[in-house]
Each structure stands twice: as structure tokens, then as C-alpha cells.
Design a protein that fits this description.
About 85% of the residues lie in helices and about 0% in strands. By secondary structure, it is mostly helical.
């Protein structure tokens, strides 16, 4: 019973994490319109979010190494919902920037905490659950965005929409927190001593690079796929939205079944297959110039994208020498930077060479994910034993 309770509680937290991100994503254009922000001002808001996340992720990783993810979750999970609720009262640009920094810090800390807790649950019960948990995050994002869009369409105020959504997250979090598990004291002590003054080991850094390319592609597809369908293929707005929704549903479904993939493939093989499918699918989307082919390509892209992050997190927990908390925070920080850097870089390159060619960077990212683990597997035997991605 304790095992099931821990898994369901963790699934709820991943769902809450994604739900909050969905709420935020829907309200970015709302804040832009309500506060009459220009693109430059909105960029500052988004930069504040990035700054908060990048600062908080390494710090919370070290904190987890000392006091455990369950204890840290009590603070960061509740803060996440409360900050979103407070955003409903924002009425100025300065307030929005401050809230964006705080939201970014809470979001980054929450991501590191729930992923570290997931590693602890996997180790404690000896079962792989990372992919289905990431599926819960994707489902939460769809629910948050959908519920918020529906409430705004029916005239809900910003305070009611964000305040109500944030408080709902807090209530659900309070129900889930008591069922989380605590890492053994000796494991936390060892991680704290090993990770205190050490940079991430080479195996962790290599996995962080793979996470960067995987999340670079995810961020770029999320922001530019529908734009490409509309502007380059000339489909209607509804079909463009349907194309992105198809990709998102395919990714969520693949994440829920990802643990079956790891029963048959090693992490290195799974990453190679995922990266190859991502490159093939999105390559078809941007080069075949047909709506039906683009739709099939986006489905393959979603399948390929789905399990890159879950596999990387599971692999880094198995191979790191600095403790799961600091290692997950290091990989999350690098990967999250890729997620946020992808969309503006694609936009900048598109200005110079066109969107279709710029989106080739997504295809190249898939290739990098596919070949990264294979190159690692060719290290000298002694180094491979120490820090390479596990290979079957």
C-alpha cells in the first residue's frame, strides 16, 4: 500500500507541476495585452523567469542532498501554487517581472525536487516509473492550459482564473505531500559530503549535454511547429492548432508507455532510438511540404521526444558520483537552458535564412541525441565503467 501511495502522490505532483506550467503559458499573451507590453518588455519578463530557474536549480539540488527531497518538497511545491495564485493580482510591469522571477525560481526548484523524489522512489521500490511520471506532467500541462483557456473564454477574471488555479494546486499538493518517501539518512549524508565542493562528474556533464539538445528541440517544436504549419504550409489556424495538439498527445502517450521501452532497451539504445525518431519525424514535417505528411511527422516527433528526458534522468541517477539531487539539478539547469534558448535562436536564424531551414536545427538536435550515447560507449574501458551511459 505504501508503494502505491508513494507512486500516486508523486504522479499527482508531476500533474500539478505541468498544470501550473499550462496556466502560466496561457496567461503570457493575457499579461501582454492587459499591461500593454511591447516585445522588449515581454522579453524581460521571460528573462526573469529564466534567471529565477537557473539560480534556484543548483541551490535546491545541494539542499536536497542535505535534507532530502521530501522535506524540500514541502516548501517548493506549496510556493509554486501560491506564487501562481498571487499573479492574479499583478497590475504593473514591475510586479509581473518580480512574480516571473519568483515563479521561475519555484518552477525550477519544483522540477528538480520531484525528479529527485522520482529517483528515490525508483530506487526504494526497484521499479522504473520516470516515463509515466513525465507523462503526468504532459497531461497536467494540457489540463492546465485547457481549463484556463475555457475559463478565460467565459469571462473569468485574472484573479479568479490564476488565483483559483493556484489555490487548487496548493490543496492538491497538501494531499500528496504526506505520502512522499524520504531518502535514507546515510545516502543523504554521503551525497552531501561528495557533492559539497565538487563539480558534476564527466558522465553527468555528458548526459546534461544530451538533455540540452533534447529540451532544445522540445522548446523549439512547442513554439514554432504551429507557426510553421500556418505560415509555410498555409493551413488554417484550427488545423495548425490541431497539428500541435496531435504532437502533444503523441508525446504524452509515449511517456506513459516509456517504462516498457526500457525493459527492452538500455538507456543508450533508448536515447539513440528516440533521437533518430525525432530527427526523422521532424525532418519529414519541414521538408515534405504537405499537411498530411507534416501531421505524421509530428506524431513521430512526439514519440521520439517523449522519453529523452526520462531516460537521461534515470541514467544520471545510476551513474553520478555527486548524489542524485545535485546531479539532477545540474542536468536540469543545462537542459532547461536549452528549452528556453531554442525558440529565440530559431527565430533569430529564421530572420536570416527562413523558418524552414532554421527548423533544421531541431533535426540536428535529434541527431545529436541519437549519436551522443553511442560516442560515449566508445570511451576507454576504465572511463566507461566509471561514468558512461549504461549500455546493454
Amino acid at each position: 500500500m505504501r508503494e502505491n501511495a508513494a507512486k500516486w502522490a508523486l504522479a499527482a505532483l508531476f500533474l500539478i507541476d505541468g498544470f501550473g506550467f499550462g496556466l502560466w503559458a496561457v496567461h503570457v499573451p493575457v499579461f501582454k495585452q492587459r499591461l500593454a507590453l511591447g516585445n522588449g518588455e515581454l522579453s524581460l519578463v521571460l528573462f526573469g523567469l529564466v534567471l529565477g530557474s537557473i539560480v534556484s536549480m543548483p541551490l535546491v539540488g545541494q539542499l536536497i542532498a542535505r535534507i532530502g527531497s521530501r522535506t524540500v518538497a514541502r516548501v517548493v511545491a506549496l510556493s509554486y501554487g501560491l506564487i501562481l495564485a498571487a499573479m492574479g493580482m499583478v497590475d504593473s510591469f514591475v510586479m509581473l517581472v518580480v512574480c516571473a522571477v519568483l515563479y521561475g525560481a519555484a518552477k525550477g526548484a519544483f522540477d528538480v525536487t520531484v525528479n529527485t523524489q522520482a529517483i528515490a522512489v525508483e530506487r526504494h521500490f526497484g521499479k522504473s516509473i520516470m516515463s509515466p511520471l513525465q507523462g503526468c506532467w504532459s497531461l497536467g500541462g494540457l489540463l492546465g492550459a485547457g481549463a484556463s483557456s475555457l475559463s478565460l473564454r467565459h469571462g473569468a477574471s485574472l484573479l479568479l482564473d490564476l488565483g483559483g488555479g493556484g489555490l487548487l494546486m496548493v490543496a492538491a499538493t497538501l494531499l500528496a505531500l504526506p505520502w512522499l518517501i524520504q531518502e535514507p539518512a546515510e545516502e543523504r549524508a554521503a551525497a552531501a559530503n561528495e557533492g559539497r565542493f565538487r563539480l558534476p562528474d564527466t558522465g553527468t556533464l555528458r548526459l546534461a549535454v544530451i538533455a540540452f539538445f533534447g529540451l532544445f528541440a522540445e522548446g523549439a517544436v512547442g513554439d514554432w511547429a504551429a507557426v510553421f504549419l500556418r505560415s509555410n504550409l498555409g493551413v488554417s489556424l484550427s488545423l495548425a492548432a490541431a497539428g500541435y495538439a496531435t504532437y502533444a498527445v503523441a508525446m504524452a502517450g509515449a511517456r506513459f508507455s516509456g517504462h516498457w521501452l526500457l525493459r527492452w532497451l538500455s538507456p543508450a539504445q533508448a536515447l539513440a532510438a528516440s533521437g533518430g525518431l525525432l530527427a526523422l519525424g521532424f525532418g519529414a514535417t519541414v521538408t515534405l511540404h504537405h499537411w498530411a505528411a507534416a501531421l505524421v511527422g509530428l506524431v513521430l516527433t512526439g514519440f521520439g521526444m517523449a522519453n529523452i528526458v526520462p531516460v537521461v534522468f534515470t541514467a544520471v541517477a545510476r551513474t553520478t558520483k555527486i548524489g542524485a539531487g545535485p546531479a539532477i539539478s545540474a542536468v536540469s539547469t543545462v537542459g532547461y537552458f536549452g528549452f528556453l534558448a531554442g525558440p529565440p535562436l530559431i527565430g533569430w536564424v529564421a530572420v536570416h535564412i527562413g523558418l524552414e531551414k532554421a527548423l533544421g536545427l531541431v533535426v540536428l538536435s535529434g541527431v545529436a541525441v541519437a549519436f551522443g550515447p553511442l560516442l560515449m560507449a566508445r570511451q576507454p574501458d576504465r572511463e566507461r565503467e566509471q561514468d558512461a551511459v549504461p549500455v546493454a
